Each structure stands twice: as C-alpha cells, then as structure tokens.
C-alpha cells in the first residue's frame, strides 16, 4: 500500500467516523423542522441497501486471494452504521427532523468522491470496478438527500413542532396524585420522549445501589467486578494456551517447549476454580449484596410510610406491598450489570483483540454487522415487549389482589357460600395471566430467533475467515480450535441481553412503581434539619388549648363530586364542639382536613391563626390527637399498642391510661397481661380468643389518653361500640383528661355529646343547618330535635 493511498484511507476513516457520530446523535430541536417526502424513503432505503451490499462484497473480497486495504473494514462498517441508523429512524417516524443529517450527507459525498478518485488513479480489477460503481451510486444518493432537503425547504413543507412532553419532577409532583404513581411504562416513555430518557429516571436508585458513605462495601463491589473481568481475561488466555498446545506437539523438540503452556493451563484452571477467585468474588459480592438489599428494603418501607394519606386511603395495602416487593427487583438488574454486563464488555474487548489476530481486520465487519442488526432488532421489539409485559404485569397484579382480598375476607366469603365461586374466579384470572405471559414470551422468542440467526451467520462468516487465513499460512490449526471461545467472548454481551431481556423488561416495569414512590414529594418532611429545629422551637410555644378555624373550605374526592362547599367553622380554645348529621354529609372529611390527612380543594384550615398548608404533617399531628373510626390496633403487645400514644411512657402510665379507658381489668385477665400480643387489628389474643369491638375501641382510647392532648383532641365515633355504662364512665374520664383541651367530637349517639359547648348540625355538602347548645337546639324543634327524638324518644326530650 502506497503512502498516498494510506493517507487517503485515513481521511476516509475520519469522514466516515464523523458521519457515523452525526447519525447516532440525539435529535436536536429545530425552529422549522422539515418533513421528508416520499422520495427520501426511496433514497434512504437505496443507500442502506448499497452500503450493505458493499459490506458483503468486501467480505467476499477478503475470502478471495487478493488482500484489500487494512482500513477498508472500518470505513465500510462506519458507512453501514450511518446509512442503517438514518433509514431506521426514518422508518420509525417519518415526520422527524432530517436537517441534523445534512452534514453527514456532505461528508458522505466527500468520502465517496475520494474513493472514486483513488480508484481512477489506481489499478483495476473486478473488485475495483464494483467498488467504483457502488461509490458513484452512493454519491448520487447523498446528493439526492440534499436535493430533497432543499426542495422541501423552498416549498415550506414544515412539520408542526410537537409540544414538549410534560414530565413531572420531584419538586412539582402532587403527593396526592395516585394517577401518577400507577401509570404504565408505555405512558412514561411517550411522555419523556423515548426509552433512553426513561431509563435515566432510574438513576434515583444509584445512591442506594452504590451504598454512598460505606467505603468498605463500595470496595467489595468494585473488587467483585474487577475479579469478574479478570476471570474473562483468564478464560481468553486459557484458549490461547490451548491453541499453542494444539500446535506444539508436532513442532516441539522436547518437553521443555510444551511445559510452560501445560503448567500455565493447570494453574489458570486452579485460579478460576472455587478454591481461589470464584469463592473470593462470591464472598465479596455477598458482603455488598446483603447490605444493599437491606438498604433498598428500608427505603422502600420509608417511601411507603411517607406517602400521603390519599394514597393509603385509595390504595389497597396488599397491592402497595406487592408492587413495592416487585420493585425491589431493580437491584437484581444491577447484579446483571455488575457481574454479567461489565465482564461481558471486557470479554468483548479481549475476544475482539484475539479475533483480529487470527481472522484479520475483516472480522470487524462481521462483528459490526451482528451488532447493528442486533441493536435494530432489539430496539424495534422493545416496544412490543414492554406492551406485552405491561399487560402481563397488570393481570398478574389483579390475580394477586384477588387472592389477598378473598383470603382476608374469608368469613364473608364463607357466610355467603361463595368459596367455590372464588376458586373458579381465581382459576379464570390465573388463565388470563398465563395467556398474557405466553403472549409476552412469544414476542421474546421472535426476537430470540432473529438474534440467534444473526449470531450463527456471523459465526460462520468468521470461521470462513479463519479457514482462509489458515489456508494462506497466516493462522494455525490451533486458531481454529480457539475460534469458538473467542467468538463466544465477543458475542457474550448480545447473549446476555438475549437471556436477560425478559427478566430485565419485567423488573424495569415493576421498578417503575418503587421509582415513582421515591420521586414523589412526600408530605412528611421529618428529615429536614431546618424543619426539625423549627418544630423544637414551636413545641415551646405550643402550650394550652388551640383555636381552630375552617374558612371557606371546599373539598372533593373526585372532580365534580363535591363533599364540602364553602364551609366556615370557628372553634374557640378550650371548648368542646360536636358535629352531627346524616351519613355522607362530610363529618369525617372535616376531621381529616383538621388532622392534615386531606388538603382543601379551596379555602384554608387555621390552627391558632396559622394556615395548616404552611405546616408539615409532623407539626399538625403534634398538636392534633385523634381517634378515628378506621384506627387500627397493631400486631404487637397491648403495652406496645398503648405506648404508641407516648413513646417514652412508663408501665405505670400505660396502666393508668387503660384504667381511664376501662380496659385495665380485661387486660389483667389475659395470661400475660400487658405483654400478650394482639393479632391483626386485635383479633387474636391469648390462645385464639378475640378482643371484642368495644375492647379494641377502649385500647384506642387508652392510647389517646396516654398522649394527653393539650392542644386539640378529635374523636370520630370513638365510643360507638361501647355499652351505655362503660361509655358513661369513659365520658367522665374524658372530661377530666380533656379539661384543658379543645375537643371536637363526631358521634351518632347523641346523649354522648349533649354536654358539648356547641353542637353543629350538618346538611348536604357540609352546610351548617343549625348550631347551638343541646338545650338551645331542642327548644328550636328543628333538625337536631328530630334526630334526638328518633334516637332517644320524645319522653326524654328536655
């Protein structure tokens, strides 16, 4: 090869490289995007065909007796990538901007003209004539591109700029937006503009994967990856030694010449075994993996607990836990990355080096063909896999929820003789899961067949190159023996993707839920030092009963379904207010707004004149203590359940609170007393005996008494399950405990609230129909008087 032709070859390589980079770069924004016309489709397809044919001609030339330039494989490969990527993107969306490629077309014209000039000034053979013909055709194709662009620009055939997809970010996401957290992966991909921007969103897991702050475990991770890479290099070196051993016995004059390969091979086998590197890597990885999994589980639990009340109110607890558990599979994706993909890339580099040595530079053509086709097939089938995987995930989730729901509601199912129908429904849902799963696998197997066909074809072409080099004395028979190992190493990454993709796609979809949990702006912000310091200052100021006001408050659970409309309530400090009214008038909703579980759609809630919207949840709940209808007893001991009201309470304080709640004697009759563990919601105590509804309610009241609310106490049907005598006794204790508190009571049993300072009778949409004391309202003979007569009777109306 002359110096002049070598110089031209390097210029062509530079032009082809720059054109390839321009073609694979992301689409930039453009003020006036040009829509490619029909001609561009034909030109793009023709360019792709011409470059691929050129590539295969070069392969055939490499298998002939003549030897082309060493730079030719690189130049041709880069040209193939350029044409293929451009045409693939055109097929993907014909309305995308084509102006970013204008410089790659100019470079393409320069490249092909250089190729034409070099051939016109050189010797001619059949291969030179073919390359010249294809160069002229491709040069015409690039010129046609430019002509189409100029014509479209003159005719102003512009494409309206698509609106930029709105992507929620962590500072603006509404924590009550359950629709955001339950979106499908497809919806997100469309919003962010592609799969790669979508994958970037998973960077939120990195601090928990890298174990920020723990240098020892970071070292364990790095060392594990390094050892995995070393193992791949040793595997390649072993193949090289085997190749030498295959050649040496016929040439060796003595044992000394084959001793080193044999001993080295034995030593490497020992080094790669469980005796050495494998166990060391496994031990280091287990150190890292155990801590990482524990941290991910901890952040998952913290993310769920910090969700707003709306999520916990709307969401099914079994579904939340199941989705979060599946989402933890994101860590296993990193396992594949660290222990499989990175070592696989190392295998590719080492294997490619050895492949070039035994097959020549033209093997790069074969490898790049495989990679290009693999990338296109994978990208085009990704959308189908995600869609099928999303359907499978949804049906599988539905099956899991059905099982949780029917098992948890077993008594109801049994009472209505619906056990067999639930079993049949479970079978139907299971069949739907299987159907969606097989649809998903069918798509994956299609991709698998394409990829395997590509790899087998590439392996055969590479083998032909090795044989060609052996025939002409450039390689040895031992190289043919080593070739399968080297080919396996260079294509290992593709095989990894092929094997791991079904699991990877599912895990990414499952991880979406957990990722969105972490993205949400949580309503509890206890981690902020400034907030903690502010709360410590506020606690010193927050003494004595508080005033409370709802000013023009409106609320709707769903758009268009108004629950409260322009509600105005003012409660003075150290007063007791009762809310009464029919079912669904918004009593419990008002209490949830006061406690901060809900936020008003309109209006404000004020505590001592301060808007609760400007307060974090910790501050609100530090001032407002509540017993709700839906309050639950935890699956812990009785003492632990009561101590929930005051974490540092002594045993004496716990027992005193239980005496006030009239539950102390019942607890002492249990075998372990206060140390007896309560089952789920108090339904399993002391050898399978259950607490009654009234006993469970008294445990909740004991918890409230122990918290000793000095600001605001809220009771939502807190004594609905108690008998009359017990309720009267507890009422007297309440008056003592809450004598210096602002108290808000919701009750359907009117005698319990008749001593309140003010009673508010609510109508539809929270409208105050009547307000006043018990005696005053009875004297009016209005709505309250009717409610009292219906419950107590006219004889007791005084």
Notable characteristics:
798 residues, alpha/beta, ABC transporter transmembrane region fold, Rossmann fold, 3 domains, six-stranded mixed sheet, four-stranded antiparallel sheet, 64% helix, elongated, AAA+_ATPase
Describe, in plain words, how this protein is organized in 3D.
The chain has 798 residues and is of the alpha/beta class. It folds into three domains: 3-154, no CATH class; 178-519, ABC transporter type 1, transmembrane domain (ABC transporter transmembrane region fold); 557-796, P-loop containing nucleotide triphosphate hydrolases (Rossmann fold, 3-Layer(aba) Sandwich). The protein has 30 helices and ten strands. It has helices at 3-24, 38-62, 72-92, 102-120, 126-154, 178-181, 185-192, 195-200, 206-209, 215-251, 256-272, 277-305, 309-314, 317-327, 330-359, 363-408, 410-415, 419-471, 477-490, 492-519, 529-541, 587-595, 617-623, 638-643, 651-660, 664-668, 693-707, 724-737, 774-780, 783-791; strands spanning 548-558, 561-571, 576-581, 602-607, 610-611, 624-627, 712-716, 742-746, 758-762, 768-772. The strands form two sheets. A six-stranded mixed β-sheet has the order 6-7-8-3-9-10, sandwiched between helices. It has a four-stranded antiparallel β-sheet with strand order 2-1-4-5. Helix 10 (215-251) packs antiparallel against helix 11, helix 12 packs antiparallel against helix 14 (317-327) and helix 25 (651-660) crosses helix 27 (693-707). The termini are far apart. The model is unreliable at 29-33, 155-177 and 522-532 (pLDDT under 50).
